[in-house]
Specification:
The chain is α+β, with helices and mostly antiparallel strands. The protein has two helices and three strands, in the order αβββα. The protein has helices at about 5-30, 65-95, and strands spanning about 35-40, 40-45, 50-55. The chain has a three-stranded antiparallel sheet with strand order 1-2-3.
Length: about 110
């Protein structure tokens, strides 16, 4: 009694290992890639690991009467930078997985 589909299983395992290697490479590339967002004089730079690497605030934004506006601008810039990083990561991962919709950490 044989197992006729074991050859296919071997190919699937091989493909999964190759995909793991590609995903690791993309993750390393993303860690080096920078995403930037600017809103009302506030600029955030964030890497593909979703770490904020730089914040710049236009000195005109530091007026004490504009504190609420400054806080909202900082929050919006941070949200936009994180969204850009997540979108960039999703595009790269989709290219490797072929749109399989694998959950994070699957490979």
């Amino acid at each position: 009694m044989g197992f006729p589909n074991l050859g296919n299983m071997g190919e699937m395992i091989k493909m999964a290992r190759e995909m793991q290697g590609q995903l690791k490479k993309v993750k390393e590339e993303l860690a080096r890639e920078m995403f930037e967002s600017t809103n009302q004089g506030i600029t955030f730079k964030i890497n593909g690991d979703l770490e904020i690497k730089e914040v710049k605030i236009d000195p005109k934004m530091a007026d004490p009467q504009n504190v609420g506006r400054l806080e909202r601008a900082v929050m919006e810039a941070a949200k936009n930078a994180l969204k850009s990083a997540k979108d960039g990561a999703a595009r790269k991962m989709k290219g490797i997985t072929g749109g399989l919709g694998l959950p994070p950490g699957m490979l």
